[in-house]
C-alpha cells in the first residue's frame, strides 16, 4: 500500500515538473485594437470607428525558414480591443498580430498598410511587464463616408502649417 502511494506521488511530481516546464513562466498578454478606416485614408482620423467582433491572430514564425511555430486567435470586445494570452517565451520567433475578419460587411477589406503588428514575446529584452501592446490593425470601408474629402483637406492644411 505504501509503495503504491509512493509510485503515485512520484508520477504526480513528474507530471507537475513536466507541466510547469511547458509554461515557461508567466503568460504574455497581447493587447491591441481593430478599427474601420471610414475615409479610406490609410490612417486613423477623427471619424475612424472601432470594430467589435473582429477576429485577429497572433502568428509566431521561425526566423530561419519562416515556418509557423505558434498561432492563437482572439476577438475584439465591444470597444474594438482584444487581449490574447500567449503561453511561453517566443524569444527566437518573429511574432505578428494579423487581422482575420471584420463582422462589418461595409468595412471588411484589410488595409494593406495596417495589416500586421509586430510584437516581441520574450522576457530577454529588458521589458519587465508581461503585457505587450500591438499597433492598431485597420480595415477599409467599401466607400468613404460623406464629409471625408473635407476632413482630409483639413488634415492637409494642418500639415502645410507645420
Quick one: biggest sheet? 6 strands, mixed
Total number of helices: 2
Mean pLDDT: 87
CATH topology: Immunoglobulin-like
Terminus-to-terminus distance = 83 Å
H/E topology pattern:
HEEEEEEEEEEH
Number of domains: 1
Question: At the fourth CATH level, what is the homologous superfamily?
Answer: Immunoglobulins
Structural class: alpha+beta
The CATH class name reads Mainly Beta
Q: What is the tally of beta strands?
A: 10
* C-alpha-based Rg, rounded: 22 Å
The coarse silhouette is elongated
Kindly state the percentage of residues in helix. 10-25%
What percent strand? 25-35%
Quickly give the CATH architecture. Sandwich
**Uncertain spans:** 14-23
What's the topology here?
Layout: H1 2-23, E1 28-37, E2 49-50, E3 55-62, E4 68-75, E5 81-86, E6 93-101, E7 109-110, E8 117-119, E9 131-133, E10 137-140, H2 148-161
Parallel strand pairs: 1-9, 1-10
Antiparallel strand pairs: 1-2, 1-5, 3-4, 3-6, 6-8, 7-10
Describe it.
The protein is an alpha+beta fold. The protein has a single domain (27-161), classed as Immunoglobulins (Immunoglobulin-like). Helix content is 22%, strand content 34%. The protein contains two helices and ten strands; from the N terminus they run H-E-E-E-E-E-E-E-E-E-E-H.
Offer a concise description of the structure.
Keywords: Disulfide bond, Signal. The chain is of the alpha+beta class and 162 residues long. It has helices at 2-23, 148-161; strands spanning 28-37, 49-50, 55-62, 68-75, 81-86, 93-101, 109-110, 117-119, 131-133, 137-140.
Amino acid at each position: 500500500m505504501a509503495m503504491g502511494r509512493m509510485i503515485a506521488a512520484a508520477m504526480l511530481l513528474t507530471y507537475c515538473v513536466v507541466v510547469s516546464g511547458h509554461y515557461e513562466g508567466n503568460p504574455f498578454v497581447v493587447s491591441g485594437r481593430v478599427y474601420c478606416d471610414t475615409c479610406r485614408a490609410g490612417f486613423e482620423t477623427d471619424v475612424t470607428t472601432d470594430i467589435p467582433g473582429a477576429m485577429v491572430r497572433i502568428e509566431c514564425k521561425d526566423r530561419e525558414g519562416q515556418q509557423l511555430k505558434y498561432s492563437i486567435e482572439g476577438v475584439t470586445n465591444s470597444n474594438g480591443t482584444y487581449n490574447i494570452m500567449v503561453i511561453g517565451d517566443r524569444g527566437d520567433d518573429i511574432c505578428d498580430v494579423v487581422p482575420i475578419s471584420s463582422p462589418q460587411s461595409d468595412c471588411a477589406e484589410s488595409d494593406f498598410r495596417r495589416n500586421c503588428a509586430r510584437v516581441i514575446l520574450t522576457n530577454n529584452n529588458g521589458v519587465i511587464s508581461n503585457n505587450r501592446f500591438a499597433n492598431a490593425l485597420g480595415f477599409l470601408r467599401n466607400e468613404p463616408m460623406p464629409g471625408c474629402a473635407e476632413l482630409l483637406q483639413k488634415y492637409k492644411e494642418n500639415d502645410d502649417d507645420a
